[in-house]
Amino acid sequence: MSELIAQLVGVGHHYEEGPEIFKGVTLSIEKGTFHFLTGPSGSGKSSFLKILYLGLKPTWGNVKLFGKDTYKMPSHYLPLLRQKIGVVFQEFKLLDHLRVVDNVSLPLRVRGIETKRSLKHARELLDWVGLGDCLEAYPTTLSGGQKQRVAIARAVITRPQLLLADEPTGNVDDDMAMKLLYLFEELNKMGTAIIIATHNQRILEKFSYPQLFIKEGMINKEEPVLNLPKKKAVS
Question: Residue 155 in contact with residue 163, Cβ under 8 Å?
Answer without folding.
Answer: yes
